Amino acid sequence: MTQKNIKKLLIKAKKQVFSEIPGNNPSLFKGEGFDFVELREYQPGDDVKKIDWLVTAKLQKPYIKLYREERELNVVVAFMLNGSMFFGTKRFKQELAAEIGAILGFAAIKNQDNFSYILFADKEYSSIRPTKHINAVQKCAESVAKFVTLGKSANFSQLTQRLFKIRRKSIVFIISDFFGEYDFKVLAKKHEVVAIVVRDRFEEDPTPIGFMNLIDPETKKSFIVDFEGSTLKNYKKEIKKADSKMYEHFKQSGVRFTKIYTHEEPFIKLLKLFGQK
Fold first, then answer.
1. Whole-prediction pTM
2. Which residues form the DUF58 domain (predicted)?
3. Domains in the chain, please, with CATH?
4. What are the DSSP E strand ranges found in the chain?
């Protein structure tokens, strides 16, 4: 991705965040950056995600946790940039991830929240400390857009451990195509975790195109695949099976999530995720 295209991406994201977010919603997101205060009995209209199920089970009545909001959120954007992110028919998933990161970064800065990012693959490659400086967003987008993903595998285990070490309760965005093994159950007990799945339509629903010579983006090994008949049918079946497992894991772990394709507008999808459109 050229420096000119990165600049266009940043201008677009900044304009959307600072001009198009409704005035009565100063922040794109509202995180769980709160101190626990007390429990009270559930009332119609309360957020069911705040129900304390252990207390509810013991008292046989639904109870929710009440919090005192902190003055600012700690927003952490974590990118998993393994080889499979180097793919896209409309644009590369890596480029989409950079734009999403820019939107989240500008939203944090606009709301005077702390912003930081972590760039990961088989290990940590880049990160910054929490800051409110707008230049950090540009550094984030450039780091993601220029990162060499080919030949790198995804190590979600190390990423999860790295994020768990963040002391202050944070709203953690994990941006990845989530092709791999991961477990966010423990992480989601400490932080508010939001998974943003970036995909290309073709990798989920490829058209019949016969024999193709493909290269594994993580190992760089080439192989021939017949994208026809039963092979194509089984591939689509496995993708749906894996995604079903992914969604179930997110729900069980209390992780909010959305999927954004390379042909879609990420700003709109993020507004929908946080209930602002």
1. 0.83
2. 38-241
3. 3-25+71-273 (3.40.50.410), 34-69 (no CATH)
4. 34-41, 63-69, 74-80, 114-120, 124-127, 171-176, 192-199, 210-215, 222-227, 256-261
